[in-house]
């Protein structure tokens, strides 16, 4: 009782005061890093609506042009977890500036490419060197900012991570139509110079530890690279190659299956591992990584399905696709400030649940898609999905990182971003496979349901035959037109199935959030200043 009644100790006895924060330098340095992160994530999807124009510009085949995105993503997944080690070795500022400089040089080289081979090479190097700009921002947000300000930083990052791939096709489509596809890559130069100035001048957040260079784990790096690049290739290209029917996909799957466990063993056994896996001992981190994986699938999956539908079924131009996609970005932008406030007041698990349910609701509505759907029909779907993904993203960041000790944050941020990228690749692979399979299935159902002796069907074929009377074979042309109509309907129905699949995945994720433990509410900046 006497202890309870004792007066509080003087401030001097409570320990040294926290060092004063230079808010100007912190915010300007962080702003520079955020712009760099936005560029790196934007470049994943900025080419999505402009692939036909790039294909024509470099003389690529339909199979080769898909490598413009694949070549960026495969090496990027190696740099993302590696960046945590490099940041501890050289310091965040040096790593970020080196990454940004390499990214800008490779952006210019991609834009100047005159052949598909050159473009793929420089695009791969662009993805690799630029990959370090993504997770280092997360680490700074959870180490350089005081606890009461981390939610604000988390909101900004959540906005960038979700908004960049969403506005990518929009910006890319308009740039291609107004200028040329070369400007999809040249556009990085001006903001990149600003990033280099701000980060070089203000981002003195930490110092490197040169002793980490001793005993560098080359075996761990090799195993990680082989595992992640093989896995990413299988996920990106598997659907197009009929999965294990292709020898290369089968071989790379075996390599991933062997190198993955070997890399985990090496990371746990070696004294100075490339990636620290001890963060997985934290239950909330495990659940948060799983949620981030599903957010990646929902984010990149939705951004993949809608432009593909608009181009394949509605035959929209790149600019029209971009304009239709803008609703999702606006919804995310509008939701971010409210999500930041809510995460201070409400258990983050509840917000994750609500976010995934909203995303699932939006995707579930899109299962009823028809070949007449356009901007207004997709507006509600995109708004629901955009709000839900943003809420789930910010809440999952809080759950994932809030309970980790500071010395684990740099490695953990790389693992979180890796989970989102691999989740996106997994989502795209699943959706691609579902689209191909279900289109064929619906085509069989539609053709088997048609009775060519039916009076209405015979009248339609007769009308089409008359319309094509000037062709060499009017009857064959009429049947081809009927086949095209059926193919369009089958494709539309397959897209409805894909939207439904994405909705089910988000709904399952909503209930998985209940496995995490409660996270202490974050004090608001105002409360912090009062106390």
Provide a compact summary of the structure:
The chain is an all-alpha fold and 531 residues long.
Structural class: mainly alpha
Strand content: under 5%
Residue share in helices? Answer: over 70%
Shape: globular
Termini distance? 26 Å
- The low-confidence runs, each spanning 5 or more residues with pLDDT under 50, are 1-15, 526-531
- Integer average pLDDT: 79
Instruction: Provide the gyration radius in Å.
Output: 25 Å
**Order of helix and strand elements from N to C terminus:** HHHHHHHHHHHHHHHHHHHHH
Biggest sheet overview: none
Number of strands: 0
* SS element count, helices: 21
Walkthrough of the structure:
This protein has 531 residues and is an all-alpha fold. Helix content is 76%, strand content 0%. Helix 5 packs antiparallel against helix 18 and helix 8 packs across helix 18. The protein starts with a helix and ends with a helix.
Question: Could you list some keywords that capture this structure?
Answer:
0% strand, globular, mainly alpha, 531 residues, disordered N terminus
Strand and helix map with partners:
Elements: H1 2-5, H2 23-45, H3 51-58, H4 62-65, H5 67-90, H6 92-112, H7 116-130, H8 135-143, H9 147-178, H10 183-186, H11 189-202, H12 218-237, H13 247-269, H14 283-312, H15 318-345, H16 348-365, H17 375-401, H18 409-449, H19 455-467, H20 474-512, H21 525-530
């Amino acid at each position: 009782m006497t202890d309870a009644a004792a007066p509080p100790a003087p401030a001097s006895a409570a320990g040294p005061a926290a060092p004063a924060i230079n808010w100007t330098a912190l915010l300007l340095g962080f702003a520079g890093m955020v712009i760099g992160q936005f560029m790196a994530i934007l470049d994943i999807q900025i080419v999505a609506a402009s692939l036909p124009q790039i294909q024509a510009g470099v003389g690529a085949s339909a199979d080769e042009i898909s490598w413009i995105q694949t070549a960026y993503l495969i090496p990027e997944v190696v740099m993302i977890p590696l960046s945590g080690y490099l940041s501890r070795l050289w310091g965040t500022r040096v790593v970020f500036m080196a990454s940004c400089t390499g990214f800008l040089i490779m952006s210019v080289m991609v834009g100047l490419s005159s052949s598909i081979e050159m473009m793929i090479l420089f695009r791969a190097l662009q993805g690799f060197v630029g990959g370090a700009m993504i997770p280092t921002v997360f680490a700074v947000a959870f180490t350089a900012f005081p606890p009461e300000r981390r939610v604000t930083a988390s909101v900004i990052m959540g906005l960038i991570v979700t908004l960049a791939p969403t506005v990518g096709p929009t910006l890319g489509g308009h740039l291609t139509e107004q200028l040329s596809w070369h400007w999809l890559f040249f556009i990085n130069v001006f903001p990149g110079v600003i990033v280099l100035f701000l980060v070089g001048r203000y981002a003195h957040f930490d110092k490197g530890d040169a002793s980490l260079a001793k005993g560098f784990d080359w075996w761990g790096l090799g195993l990680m690279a082989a595992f992640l690049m093989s896995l990413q290739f299988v996920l990106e290209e598997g659907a197009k190659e009929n999965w294990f029917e292709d020898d290369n996909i089968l071989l790379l799957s075996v390599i991933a299956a062997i190198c993955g466990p070997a890399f985990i063993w090496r990371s746990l056994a070696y004294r100075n591992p490339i990636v620290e896996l001890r963060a997985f001992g934290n239950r909330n981190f495990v659940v948060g990584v799983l949620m981030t994986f599903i957010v990646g699938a929902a984010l990149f999956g939705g951004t993949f399905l809608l432009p593909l539908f608009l181009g394949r079924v509605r035959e929209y131009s790149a600019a029209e696709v971009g304009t239709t996609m803008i609703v999702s970005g606006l919804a995310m932008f509008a939701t971010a400030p409210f999500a930041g406030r809510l995460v201070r007041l409400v258990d983050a698990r509840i917000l994750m649940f609500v976010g995934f349910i909203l995303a699932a609701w939006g995707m579930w509505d899109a299962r009823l898609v028809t070949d007449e759907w356009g901007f207004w029909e997709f507006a509600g779907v995109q708004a629901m999905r955009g709000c839900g993904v943003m809420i789930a993203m910010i809440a999952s960041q809080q759950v994932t990182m809030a309970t980790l000790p500071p010395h684990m944050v740099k490695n953990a941020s790389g693992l979180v971003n890796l989970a989102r990228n691999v989740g996106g690749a997994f989502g795209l692979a699943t959706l691609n496979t579902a689209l191909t399979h279900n289109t064929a299935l619906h085509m069989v159902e539609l053709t088997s349901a048609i009775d060519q002796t039916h009076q209405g069907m015979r009248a339609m074929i007769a009308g089409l035959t008359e319309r094509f009377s000037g062709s060499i074979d009017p009857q064959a042309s009429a049947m081809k037109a009927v086949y095209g109509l059926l193919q369009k309907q089958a494709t539309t129905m397959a897209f409805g199935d894909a939207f439904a699949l994405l909705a089910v995945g988000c709904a399952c994720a909503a209930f998985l959030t209940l496995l995490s433990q409660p996270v202490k509410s974050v004090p608001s900046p105002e409360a912090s200043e009062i106390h």
